[in-house]
Amino acid sequence: MARLSPDDSDPLSIQPPIFETFDERNARLALERVAKEISDGIDEEIEKARVNERKGPKPIKILLLGQSESGKSTTLKNFQLMYDSKSFRAERASWRAVIQLNVVQSFRSILDAMTRVENQENHSPISPQNPKKAPLLTPELLSIKARLQPLTQVEKNLIRRMTTAGGGEVEATPRNGHGVISDLLPSKGALKEIAINSTIPWKHAFNRIIKSETRTSFDSADGIDWDDPEDPWATLNACSQDMIKLWNDTVIRQLLAKQSMRSEDLSEYFLDSLERLTAPRYIPTDDDILHARLKTLGVSEHLFKIATSGSVRDWKVYDVGGHRSQVRAAWAPYFDDMDAIIFLAPISCFDQVLEEDHKVNRLEDSFKLWTMIVSNPLLKNTNIILFLNKIDILRTKLASGIKLKDYVISYGDRPNDVDNTTAYLKRKFGGILQEKSSSPRVYYCHFTTVTDTKSTKYILSNLKDMLMRQNLIKTNLIS
Ligand SMILES: Nc1nc2c(ncn2[C@@H]2O[C@H](COP(=O)(O)OP(=O)(O)OP(=O)(O)O)[C@@H](O)[C@H]2O)c(=O)[nH]1
Ligand SMILES: [Mg+2]
Predict the structure, then answer these.
(1) Chain segment 282-340, per-residue pLDDT in tens
(2) What count of other Cβ atoms lies within 10 Å of the Cβ of residue 476?
(3) Is residue 334 in some structural domain?
(4) Number of compact structural domains in the chain
(5) What ligand is nearest to the CA atom of residue 71?
(6) Which residues are known binding-site members for Mg(2+)?
(7) What pTM value is reported for the model?
(8) CATH number of the domain enclosing 427
(9) Does some domain include residue 208?
(10) CA 169 → CA 156, 199, 299, 359, 442, distances in Å?
(11) For site-directed labelling of 180, which of 3, 56, 74, 234 has its Cα 20 to 30 A away?
(12) Ligand 2 center from residue 320 Cα (angstroms)
């Protein structure tokens, strides 16, 4: 019979007797094996608990969804500004090249629009009933156009530099514009849009075109090589006055409106700030970075450490590429285990079509995506928060006389103002949620302009409090 040693402090330790039979020996060994398994199991549990304690509680996870150019990456930038401003500002130097490209590409669109008018005028037949009219573009506008030709080279150089520096992570993808339904679609030719593969932190890709090795602080222009002969600032600066004149010319504005070129296609925010953007030592501001356009490819994960009531929690925010070629099957693996989805629907684009399919209205596409998300059974326990975004653009659009009822027939004769149109669209999205939701849900809906940090900060911080509270209830820390 096995005996426990009275001296041994380990109760599971078994001392062999001096004499034992074969059966006794087997029984003792079996008992020792069981005792060891139990002891190992306990050690493993203790180690697991230790690791978990070190890791802290599970991170809170948020997924940003919506069609391309709905404002997902801009919402992520707001998260960065609020909870990781150091890394947001560390990217300042890299955003400079993106903004320069946004500017020259807007001018490419304007110059293309002028060329189309010239071609039309040169080719329209002249007859006694249709006499030759004075050309729309004055000699002065034409000579400005000629002087702005170097911008084409700047565009090419910037794309080449970014794609080379990005080492395969940065791509130049074709851009077709959003056009306008049943209207003359601007033929933008080979306009390319820079896209970043989100599996890497993008600033690392661009670090190779900035002086990262000489960077000393993260909240300044350090990293911008002011003596870099390849930096296009000199050409931009030389073209500055012509660019300003062209953008502010009434004939050009009419021409752009006639060709249905919208502020979204033209980075209007940057065109209104040309004097500042083309200055010799231009450094992007926070607002500039929020307005810069860089298309996302794939899915990227961003970690934030957020402090609330004395403790620090990990938050993971996932940003996805919304372009149809990227999505939407790629989103599904991320549905599992999300605490919340922020769904962005840019309601200003009710008069636009998808860049990737000119037969599909962008608002209609948002309704479809929203239906797909709220009805997905994998998401039945996930909070879904709707951002009806780009309210600033909606306001300008409605004020310019563009009517919602021309694109959303059911809107009927309701007043074409911001209050009524937003309330109507909020009801439409809410109706879909009520009808199609995979589980009973609270309808969280916000009118947003995510390029406005102040209002977005308020919304995101309320959202953070709500999720934190829910998470505590879930983990039974409070009831
Ligand atoms: N005026 C205005 N511009 C906005 C707003 N939200 C986003 N934008 C701009 O719209 C452009 C596209 O925004 P992104 O955040 O890159 O869009 P996205 O959803 O990440 O697009 P993909 O990466 O292609 O899926 C950027 O230039 C933004 O600055 C808004 O509320 N108002
Ligand atoms: Mg994006």
Answers:
(1) 999 999 999 999 888 888 889 999 987 777 889 999 999 888 766 567 788 888 889 99
(2) 7
(3) yes
(4) 1
(5) 1
(6) 296
(7) 0.83
(8) 3.40.50.300
(9) no
(10) 18, 8, 13, 31, 39
(11) 74
(12) 6
